[in-house]
Here is the input.
Amino acid sequence: MGNILWVASYPKSGNTWMRTFIQNYIENTLKPININSIHEHSTAESYAYRYQKHCSLERATTDLTIEEICAIRPLVHKDIANQANGTIFVKTHNYLGSFRGHPLHTSSVSSGSIYIVRNPLDIVISMSNYFNYSIDKTIDYMSEEMTGTPNEKENVPQLISSWSLHVKSWTQTPDPSCLILRYEDILKNSRKVFRKVESFLKLKKDPARLKRAIKNSSFGQLKIQEKKHGFVEKHENANSFFRKGEINQWQKKLTDLQIQKIIDHHEIQMKRFKYFPSSYRT
Here is the structure.
């Protein structure tokens, strides 16, 4: 068993919130940790500099094809595992699977995963604001089977897939080493859900420590810090990384046609996770 614990999610589903909670819990300080220091206990597997060391000197990662990058991925994951002192929490938006025979997550250096799922009706609003896309363009993006992120100077492409395929890939097969959480449950009952995380990580039950970590990683606290100091993980197209973090925004923001289109693409997984609006037809 390896020492990488994947913190996995479709984009804009609470991945950074989870990693911030984990670091606040581990450090156990009275004041919130600096959000720009979460790399001390977690990292992202998509950072281009990790891949560059495995390229020839005359080629940058932006010169590589997706298949070439995926061939390097297992080497990068082994580097992350070898460089860590104990468990390392690694952010991923890749779906759980392979691309042309290359695994997107390396099992030999992995210990497990935390997967966060969020209502696609709300994700579409969050992604639209974050990437400066129209709602309709975002709905199409979330429905494409082989969509992903671009090959950029700072980050290599991530193979995300559609929302439905992403969720299915991580949750369809029962696995005791994967803790599956709903974003909405974290918002509604943070103490109960983060207690599950505490238990999953085999940490000693500590109510005071848990309460402090939840307070120090609250969405309001994250927004305050970003406003004061910025956030290194914010995309260049976004005005802010932490926007509202609310649930059921779709009820006021989406048209009936847009809601129906999302349902048409994602009905099965929406029903599995109790996201299907009862007022809409199947």
